[in-house]
Fold:
Amino acid sequence: MQRYKFLINVIINLKWSGGKPSIDEMNRRILRLLRTDGKMSYRDVAQKLKRSPSTVRDRIGRMETEGIILGYVALVNAEQMGMNAEAIIFANMEDRVQLEDLHDLRNVEGVLEVLFVTGDKNIMVRMQAPDNREMEDIISDQLIPRGLKDIDLRVIMESVMRFPEVSLPN
Structure:
């Protein structure tokens, strides 16, 4: 019975907000805390916000159900993993390649992110490798054969701000 009440509540909230999940100030505060430490327990979040753990648990659960919270990840120190080179690659796709084909890039070791962007190069790939030589090999042996062309490689010299605070809409 409780589960049905929860689902009805979610449906009503979605309906009232025009089908889009609504984020109030308390949810924004919860999200800010989780962005800085995704391993925080409900109890830890509740203590910082001066709320009950059950309230925090319900709100986090609702945000997961509504697709506001998509998941949780571990942030890895690339240098400790032997990945000493990082780059952003701008490229275009060969005519034979569809955007969906680029999902296969997740199987390439070191590829962190693939984005479809505006501009004269419409694909952006962020990747890491043990060194620049290995990065060059990955690009020529794995990215180009998968249909990327007109490669513009930008080596990242230093990360100034890696994981910025999320900007939440009002």
In short: Residues 108 and 142 are 7 Å apart (CA to CA).
